[in-house]
Amino acid sequence: MANAVSEDAEKPVTVVDSAETSIGILSWMACSIGMLLCNKNAIHAFPVPCTLVGIQFLFTALVMVVVAGKSIHVGSRKDVLRWCRVIPFFSGMILSSILALKDAPMTLVITMRALSPITSLPIEMCFPNPIKLSGPMILSLVASLVGMGIYISTMDFNAGNLGGIGWTLANNLFAVVDRLLQRLMLANDQDPVDMSKTGVTLLNNILGVIPLVLAGLFAGEFSAVPEAVGNLDSVKLFWVISSCFVGAGISYTGVWVASLISATSFLVLINANKFFIIFLEVFVMKSKELSTMQIIGATISILAGIAYGKARDAVQAAEKEEVTDDTETGSGDTANTGESVPLKDDR
Fold first, then answer.
1. pLDDT given for residue 5 in this prediction
2. Which of 40, 100, 126, 329 allows an S-S link to 168, with CB 3.0 to 4.6 Å?
């Protein structure tokens, strides 16, 4: 077993591996930005959140079957049952994101998400192949929390903002559990299931409809669907359809990137991706005015997320070098490489 670990650690990162990681991350970033913008407009155009997310899920499942049917692989019933643990948190993550965008500005939502890596890191350290901490990692996470505090402290609180904060906190909770479970069951260095990326995406979107139906029944939402459909015009319909297409893209690219980087790294990537969102909302869409302190707080939070990613890379590089040195000296040590993988979809 020790030899197997050492041999895996010694495998060099090829040009193809680097290209796949770069293309996967860029694809996910494009879909993530598009999904946030489309969902922000779609939930106001079609204000029945469980139904809207359910339509997105079913559309994504259809796309997976039509476009990537041959690549769908599900190993066994046991793998499906194991994966079912992810489904409630995946559905909750997407639904709470929609509700947060309905009640709060995008800038608040993305700044609050700085909490995600702080929450996920202690749990990920308990995994079979845990993450190791360093001083710069801890400092960057503290800075991220400080930046978020500065942003919130200068807000004008009202019922809408408080509702948005509540849904954003719920979204963070669902996202952390979703990503940690996916990391555990997708990463080659953890306890992976025998399923392809398209198989995982299909299960997430088909089985994810079940919690949405239960939530819609509990909230009494379905009685309002006919009226919401009747109020759709061409512009509103455009946003609903666009959210379905971008949702299909982010569902696959999320799992793709999940198989390439760690859960905490993906959560940090989500935060770093939000600079462009802030720019769009404040300077292009002009739907939100930020004070100087809010801009400073958001900037600190996002830059701290980027710094965390750099610090994490440094720890991984040091662990690789340690494993290589142990192998060369014949110690046969099973040192942790720190090279994690998985995560998922951020809408």
1. 38
2. 100
pLDDT value of position 207? 94
CA count, 13 A, side-chain hemisphere, 103: 19
Q: Which helix (H) or strand (E) holds 53?
A: helix 49-68
Q: 3-class SS at 233?
A: coil
Residue 75: per-residue pLDDT: 84
Per-residue DSSP letter, 70: G
**What's the pLDDT at 288?**
65
CB atoms within 10 A of CB 284: 10
Q: Which two tokens mark 169? A: 């906190």
The DSSP 8-state label assigned to residue 84 in this structure reads T
pLDDT reported for residue 297: 84
Instruction: Produce one character per residue of 227-254: b if its CB has 16 or more CB atoms within 10 Å, e if not.
Output: ebeeeeeeebeebbebbbbbbbbbbbbb
Kindly give the parts of the chain with pLDDT less than 50: 1-11, 331-344
Q: Which pLDDT belongs to residue 325? A: 60
Q: Is 113 left (phi over 0), alpha (psi -120 to 50) or beta?
A: alpha
Q: What are the phi and psi torsion angles at 211 (to 5°)? A: -60, -30
Backbone φ and ψ of 76, nearest 5°: -160, 170
Of 126, 137, 130, 122, nearest in space to 335 by CA: 130
**SS3 call for 40:** helix
Count of beta carbons in the 10 Å neighbourhood of residue 77: 8
SS3 content of the chain, % helix, strand, coil (to 5): 75, 0, 25
